[in-house]
Amino acid sequence: MLVGDFKEFLEQQIALKVLKPWWDVFSEYLSVLMMMFGVFGSTLQATQDKLLCLPSHASAKHPSEIICYEFTTQTFNSTNSTLQVLPVQEMKGLKNNLDIQQYSYINQICYQEALHWYARYFPYSVVINTLILMVCGNFWFKFPGTSSKIGHFISILQKCFDSPWTTRALSKVSKLKPFEVPKLKLEDKECNLVTNADVSGDEKNELLKTTPVSVPKETAAKKPPALDKKEGEQAKALFEKVKMFKTHVEEGDILYSMYVCQSVLKAFTFVLIIVYSVILVPNIIFTVPCLAEVDNMTGYNSFCCSHTKASFFFKLAVYYLCFVCIYGLICMYTLYWLFHQSLKEYSFQHVRQETGMLDIPDAKNDFAFLLHLTDQYDSLYSKRFAVFLSEVSESKLMQMNLNHEWTVDRLKQKLQRNRNNLMELHISKLSGLPETVFKLTEIESLKLELIDSIKIPSAISYLTNLEELSLYKCPANIDEIGLGFLANRLKVLAVKFDTDREIPLWIYKLRNLEELYLFGSKCHNDISSGACLDELPNLENLKVLVLKSNITRVPPNIIYLAKSLQNLCIHNDGTKLTALNSLKNLNNLTKVELNHCNLERIPCAIFSLNSLQEVDLKENNIRSVEEILSFQNCSKLNCLKLWYNNIVFIPEHIKKLKSLESLYLNNNKIMVLPSELFLCTKLTNLDLSHNEIRVIPREIGVLQNLQYFAVSNNSIEGLPDNLFFCTNLKILKATNNRLTILSPKIANLKMLTRLELAGNKFEALPLEIGQCSCLRRCDFIIEDTLFTMLPMHIQEQMSKEQS
Questions:
Q1: What is the dihedral of CA 38, 41, 43, 49, to 10 degrees?
Q2: How far apart (Å, rounded) are the C-alpha atoms in residues 199 and 354?
């Protein structure tokens, strides 16, 4: 158990060495030497005789009156060089045959009363002083407020130093190269790298110069070994630990303050030891006069004692003071180092210059102080630690981990056809864009969602079939070569953002772009008045523009797209759209959608659009459509959607819209249908569901081209027989009404493929319904009880799968 504890203590001391500069290490060695002096002196003091006393011939009343001679019987006369013999005085005392015991007793009394305390306890004072110096030098390693931070720092520092990613980053980060693009033929360079004729010849040459050239395998530099998945995850965790530790430690300066306090305490202790030692060392003498009241036992009260270790202890004290002086000089140097420069700031300028990682932030407070201490041990630690402070380094690691996780085979499993029948790859909620994506050359549509701050590399030029790109809450940058490729190939771009600042401005350099979708349902700024749409006229080939945001006016510079723009859709999330005058200049518009724009009337600006074919005014606040007559100027208008409004009345002059083929008036408050409505004889789709209609006029039979008719969720009590003269009708929806009888003339609807009658008051269905040969059970929406009342052969006929 003790061996294990000692081993753990040694390991801890080895780990702490990175925070011990040379002066602290030197001080520890000096402390060890001083401790050895103290232990050696204490051993001698405890194991050998301390004082030997002999009686003096003359009695004294004070120790200063006692005369002790080193030579009592003979002396050397230096004048005549002869040895003179002095008269010997006979010593008389009490005879009690206890000479040994009584003088041992006298030795003990004189040791305690006559010998100076410093001479008596000098070795022990050395031990105590040295222990105090040791505690002062290592207190900050044990103090609760600092030990946890120090331990955490050393643990992270060691892991950063040993991490395989550190070696890889230091060896490669200064030599990073863009992802190589295929070498292009001279005649294809303009089509693959330069987007259009507006790019100058100098710009083309510059682009061509920046195109990487393939390097032969035999001459290519060897790449550092790739990290496996486990090492990559460990390095990723280290980045998080370093960030958290930096944020936590930079908040205060307790480590610096504690180190300064212990250094000042060491200096104060040194001064105190020197002062009292210099004063008290002369008290370590060999001959000690002693006055002991033992004359009733021995006949003497004055004694001369010899301190047998005085000479040795005096020399030991001199050496000890020399070491203490050296220790004091080190303390002074430590204080000079602490105060002659600011240790609460640390610059990684030298690391940035050596490694090329220019984004490494400087440190402050305790974090800076720890790095200064580490530099005193070895500056390489700070350099390797700085790798995990660099966002560039972190992004490269994340990219490598992504490439390990998202292999080509895994990405292929996510490929699927989208609604435009294009091969689409949808990637979401990743830390970056895997480079393996660019190996899937069959990608036609690339959708990136919830990926923070990605950079589209030049390797996107490998995706030669790419036509669509979607960036949903995914701020993206792109390099020059990749932008040139997209400008030439990309046809459709969708960008979803939270604020207009997240719209990448490089999208306005995609001069061949045909469709642009900007979705910003949570945008707090008016994107139409911001700088984000100022360059919209650069998209000279744009045909479709969809804005889903909360703008208050149509972008005025949209008029510069009058020659190309054919489809304009604004979904405004309930914000009132007021300024619409710019629309009347878009003569080539064929479709206008103004959804949820809080409009109260049909905008007059769209009545002058001669090429207009479809108008969609869904989810507004339109109550009156009297101005619908003006649509007769739009001779090509064939689809009008006024659904999800508050319309209560349809004017009679709707009959003027002779070219109308689709009319959607569902989800309004219409109660009466004018017979003039059915003079729009080209109608093929008519949706009147979710209103308050009670009667369908018999004139509906005029609509011989009608294929889709919906009157669900009204109050209709009967379908007119004339409806069944519309023999081209394929879909009839009349659910949730008050129908009680279905006319047998339904047999005329030979092309009927879907019939919805649920939610009415039918008691039975006509048998003629069996003559609707194209109707199948799955498309016949009726209660099961009514269906089972039909003859079996009709049920079987409808239950058959259509060939």
A1: -150
A2: 38
Range of the domain at 318: 17-69+94-151+256-342
Whether 171 maps to a domain, the answer reads no
Q: Which of 256, 207, 779, 279 is nearest to 458 (CA)?
A: 207
Q: What is the pTM of this model?
A: 0.66
pLDDT value at position 533? Answer: 65
How do residues 571-602 score in pLDDT, each as one tens digit? 988 888 887 888 888 889 999 999 999 999 99
Last residue of a domain, one of 320, 342, 364: 342
Q: Same structural domain for residues 563 and 646?
A: no
Q: CA–CA separation, 615 vs 591, rounded Å?
A: 6
Distance CA 570, CA 565 (A): 14
Neighbouring residues of 99: CB distance < 8 A, sequence distance ≥ 6: none
Do residues 648 and 797 share a domain? yes
Which residue in this structure is represented by tokens 């056809």?
417
Return d(Cα 456, Cα 476) in angstroms, integer: 7
Are 150 and 255 spatial neighbours (Cβ–Cβ below 8 Å)? yes
Domains in the chain: how many in total?
Answer: 3
Phi-psi category of residue 55: left, alpha or beta, with phi > 0 → left and psi -120 to 50 → alpha: beta
CA 421 from chain center: how many Å? 36
Instruction: Give the pLDDT confidence score for residue 646 in this predicted structure.
Output: 94
Contacts of 132 (CB under 8 A, 6+ apart): 269
Shared-domain flag, residues 592 and 635: no
Ramachandran area for residue 270 (φ above 0: left; ψ -120 to 50: alpha; else beta) = alpha
Look at residues 307, 342, 377 and tell me which one is the last residue of a structural domain: 342
Contact 752, 776 (CB under 8 A): no
* pLDDT reported for residue 178: 38
What pLDDT, on a 0 to 100 scale, did the predictor assign at position 227? 67
Contacts of 356 (CB under 8 A, 6+ apart): 173, 174, 175, 176
Within this chain, do residues 144 and 41 fall inside the same structural domain, yes or no? yes
Say yes or no: 27 and 100 in one domain: yes
* Residues 535, 589 within the same domain: yes
Which residues 6+ apart lie within 8 Å of 1 measured at CB?
A: none
211: pLDDT confidence band, cut at 50, 70 and 90? very low
Nearest to 385 by CA among 245, 583, 286, 253: 245
Cβ proximity of 422 and 468 under 8 Å: yes
Give the dihedral sign, CA 416/418/420/424: negative
261: Cβ contacts below 8 Å, ≥ 6 apart: none
- Residue 570: partners with Cβ closer than 8 Å, 6 or more residues away: 546, 547, 551, 554, 577, 593, 594, 595, 597
Coil, strand or helix at 54: strand
CA 504 to chain centre: 21
CA distance 672 to 670: 6
Note the pLDDT of residue 188.
39
Q: What is the pLDDT of residues 20-41, one digit of tens each?
A: 888 888 888 898 998 898 888 8
If asked whether residues 22 and 126 sit together in one domain, one would say yes
633 lies in the same domain as 535 = no
Per-residue pLDDT tens for 659-695?
999 999 999 999 999 999 999 999 999 999 999 999 9
Q: Express the helix, strand and coil content of the chain in percent, nearest 5 each.
A: 45, 15, 40
d(CA 582, CA 552): 13
> Which two structure tokens, joined as six digits, stand for 411?
């990405």
454 strand-pairing partners: 476
Max Cα separation, the chain?
Answer: 168
